[in-house]
């Protein structure tokens, strides 16, 4: 499968005062599945998947052009997020007794890499066979982080309809690293909204979660049994969402570790019965953030692809990750990468149909 390359658009970079070219890469297989990714944020812009009748739909929320991705209200659609995804409490952390202050861009806390995180950077791209690798060098001090960090994000699409994202990073100083892809999915179609999201059945392979106050984990790891966060058996989102304290999910779940042969564990499975589209997610990471687009506006202020408007509960995210604020929680999995070591994060999205 050859990777197709074209130009997605340009934008004026205020920092360098130059026009920047944004390239787009298209991955296709023989099953009529296609995925498009751009060099801005190593962002997935399109995922076309057939339903049980063979009808294609784009199941990934995004924008038609760069104007959309440059909006201040763009909620990280499809982007690779870092250097640290999710939140760092107080926008600070200590490594070996030295405190580091990172950008506070969500109140007093740090979110998704800061003011200009990896989602807002132009990545270099290299095609090798049926894979495309995006590379970015985050310099020492960027957004307050210590050390240079070289990041590669490689996308591939298999004949089994598996979209694989492998993220690797190396550093020159000890630094926290927690990358994720922030794709928003609606298996009915990107423009079908909350009405069809509520008809999704969702299962998560997670027997515990990390309770949070103001989206920052308390440090506890609590069993999901007997709570609205127990999604170990499939639930319709229209039944599950109203049971949550915040009328929607924005929570880190602890993925059940089963030591599989390929090192990947099942994160969860989403089914849209009407179309028959199924998405299963696998990862080697300990956690996943389930987000049901609670903070996407309810009015017509976020224009999406094809003239539609994206609104609250119009999609869901399964962001494979380490636990939020892990750098400040000694009982959470380690998130500090050391020089001479490699950060390796795999996320696999397998698409199929149930007839």
UniProtKB/TrEMBL annotation:
Its main location: cytoplasm. Beta-D-galactose binds at residues 86-87, 182-184, 250. Belongs to the aldose epimerase family. CDD domains: galactose_mutarotase_like. Its EC number is 5.1.3.3. Keywords: Carbohydrate metabolism, Cytoplasm, Isomerase, Phosphoprotein. It catalyses: alpha-D-glucose = beta-D-glucose; alpha-D-galactose = beta-D-galactose. GO terms for molecular function: aldose 1-epimerase activity; carbohydrate binding. It is an enzyme of class 5 (isomerase). SUPFAM superfamilies: Galactose mutarotase-like. It is found in: Cytoplasm. It comes from Cloeon dipterum. GO terms for cellular component: cytoplasm. InterPro entries: Ald1_epimerase_CS (IPR018052), Aldose_1-epimerase (IPR015443), Aldose_1/G6P_1-epimerase (IPR008183), Gal_mutarotase_sf_dom (IPR011013), Galactose_mutarotase-like (IPR047215), GH-type_carb-bd (IPR014718). One of its GO terms (biological process) is glucose metabolic process. The active site is at 182 (proton donor), 319 (proton acceptor). NCBIfam families: PRK11055.1. The keyword Isomerase applies. Transmembrane segments: none annotated. It comes from the Eukaryota. This is Aldose 1-epimerase. Pfam families: Aldose_epim. Mutarotase that catalyzes the interconversion of beta-D-galactose and alpha-D-galactose during galactose metabolism. Beta-D-galactose is metabolized in the liver into glucose 1-phosphate, the primary metabolic fuel, by the action of four enzymes that constitute the Leloir pathway: GALM, GALK1 (galactokinase), GALT (galactose-1-phosphate uridylyltransferase) and GALE (UDP-galactose-4'-epimerase). Involved in the maintenance of the equilibrium between the beta- and alpha-anomers of galactose, therefore ensuring a sufficient supply of the alpha-anomer for GALK1.
């Amino acid at each position: 499968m050859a990777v197709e390359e074209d130009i997605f658009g340009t934008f004026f970079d205020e920092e360098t005062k130059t026009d920047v070219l944004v390239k787009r890469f298209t991955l296709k297989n023989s099953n009529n599945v296609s995925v498009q990714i751009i060099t801005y944020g190593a962002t997935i812009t399109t995922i076309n998947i057939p339903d049980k009748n063979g009808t294609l739909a784009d199941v990934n929320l995004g924008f038609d052009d760069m104007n959309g991705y440059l909006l201040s209200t763009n909620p990280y659609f499809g982007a690779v997020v870092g250097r640290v995804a999710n939140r760092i409490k107080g926008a600070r952390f200590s490594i070996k007794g030295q405190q580091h202050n990172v950008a506070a861009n969500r109140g007093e806390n740090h979110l998704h890499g800061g003011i200009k995180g990896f989602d807002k950077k132009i990545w270099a791209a290299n095609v090798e066979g049926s894979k495309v690798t995006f590379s970015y060098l985050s310099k020492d001090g960027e957004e307050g982080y210590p050390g240079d960090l070289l990041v590669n994000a490689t996308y591939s699409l298999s004949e089994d309809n598996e979209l694989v994202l492998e993220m690797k990073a190396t550093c020159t100083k000890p630094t926290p690293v927690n990358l994720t892809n922030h794709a928003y999915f609606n298996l009915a179609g990107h423009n079908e909204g909350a009405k069809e999201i509520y008809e999704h059945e969702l299962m998560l392979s997670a027997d515990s979660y990390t309770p949070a106050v103001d989206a920052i984990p308390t440090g506890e790891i609590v069993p999901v049994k007997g709570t609205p966060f127990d999604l170990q058996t499939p639930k319709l989102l229209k039944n599950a969402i109203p049971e949550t304290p915040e009328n929607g999910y924005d929570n880190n779940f602890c993925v059940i570790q089963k030591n599989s042969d390929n090192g990947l564990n099942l994160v969860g499975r989403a089914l849209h019965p009407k179309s028959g589209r199924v998405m299963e997610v696998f990862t080697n990471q300990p956690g996943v953030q389930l987000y049901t687009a609670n903070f996407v506006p309810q009015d017509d202020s976020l224009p999406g692809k094809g003239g539609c408007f994206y609104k609250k509960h119009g999609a869901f995210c399964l962001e494979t990750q380490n636990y939020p604020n892990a750098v400040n929680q000694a009982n959470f999995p380690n998130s500090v990468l050391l020089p001479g070591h490699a950060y390796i994060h795999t996320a696999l999205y397998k698409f199929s149909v149930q007839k």
